[in-house]
Design brief:
With about 325 residues, the protein is α/β, with parallel strands linked by helices. It is built from 11 helices and 8 strands. Helix 2 packs across helix 11 and helix 10 runs parallel beside helix 11. The structure holds manganese (II) ion (MN).
């Protein structure tokens, strides 16, 4: 039995050793291709329980299970790219959403200056506002606005109300204020998986008015996966892509530990979600996030946290594969 085999075996035991994201080294934000970051923030959406700040800890606990190689891409991401656990965004004013969003922005400006592509775990969906205030039109995007692959049961483009339970840059507002600031380009962004019964009949109007490419869950079922993948590729190709994945786009049966569940209509199953993510394979993906995990509502076997790890592994591989092409491994 080789030492390498023993090392790989041990690294996959989630209950062994010190828990970092996917067993990656916890280092300063420098000299890395990909930084895995926790954003333990939950004051941007208080409409259900407020435990979303516990998401990063839950993922660190379980993610060693997914420190794997990618069979379909024939890729070992851990050698193809330098990947670190960049720690958690410090949020000393955790109960003040507006202060947290600006703290998140300051943190991601450092990430951007270091040239590190971040993959983040929330936290509620308001974190995407802070992250993209830090990344939009800067270094990684080469001063262009970011184009979104946004998977979600909800639009997050509220314009009719100026705060959500007191939070202004809230989990419901980020899509609108980032568009207003020119940090994202809605006309080259996709919103996919919107479903359920909303509070008002005009709920999709702001998304259409901003020009987002909207694919509701009903439209996805009618059109079929391949047709939607083609639209993603046509809309995002050649642009700086950011993936934001709200776990409520998934069916509650595979992700029960999530805030704002939508039980009235089937969500994506894991193969469907992963196929949509792979639509941006080979593109310039500057980063991504996974939001709205609610660890206190997870099942005892932590299926939601394991699903989050699987989605994050997919994002890691999508970016690591491009790093490998930029810096091919030395031939032996
Ligand atoms: Mn959302």
């Amino acid at each position: 039995m080789s030492d390498l085999h023993d090392k790989r075996m041990m690294e996959n035991l989630y209950w062994w050793g010190i828990p970092t994201f996917f067993r990656c080294p916890h280092t300063a934000l420098a000299d890395a291709d990909i930084g895995l970051v926790g954003v333990p923030h939950s004051t941007g959406n208080g409409s259900t329980e407020r435990d979303q700040h516990l998401g990063p800890r839950a993922l660190r606990h379980i993610s060693a299970l997914q420190r794997r190689v990618h069979l379909d891409f024939e890729l070992d991401p851990w050698t193809a790219a330098k990947i670190i656990d960049g720690g958690d965004v410090p949020l000393p004013e955790a109960n003040n959403n507006e202060a947290c969003i600006e703290a998140i922005t300051r943190f991601y400006k450092q990430v951007d200056n270091a040239g590190i592509r971040p993959i983040s775990v929330g936290g509620d969906h308001s974190i995407t506002g802070g992250i993209l205030q830090g990344l939009g039109q800067h270094n990684l995007t080469r001063k262009e606005p970011v184009c979104l692959l946004h998977m979600d049961a909800h639009t997050d483009v509220f314009t009719q109300i100026d705060h959500f339970l007191g939070a202004k840059k809230s989990a419901a507002h980020w899509g609108a204020y980032l568009s207003d600031a020119g940090l994202i380009d809605p006309k080259h962004s996709m919103q996919i998986g919107l479903r359920g019964h909303p509070r008002t009949l005009d709920w999709l109007n702001p998304s259409y008015e901003y020009g987002f490419h909207v694919v509701t869950m009903k439209e996805y079922r009618q059109r079929g996966q391949q047709d939607v993948i083609k639209e993603i590729q046509k809309t995002l190709a050649g642009r700086p892509v950011y993936i934001t994945f709200d776990l409520d786009c998934l069916d509650p049966s595979i992700a029960p530990g999530v805030s704002n569940l939508e039980p009235a209509e089937n969500g994506f199953l894991i193969d469907e979600a992963i196929a949509l993510l792979r639509a941006v394979r080979g593109m310039n993906i500057i980063g991504g996030d996974i939001v709205c995990m609610m660890p206190t509502k997870d099942s005892p076997n932590q299926i939601t946290a394991m699903t989050v790890a699987a989605i994050m592994f997919e994002m890691i591989c999508l970016i690591a594969e491009s790093c490998q092409k930029t810096h091919p491994p030395p031939s032996l």
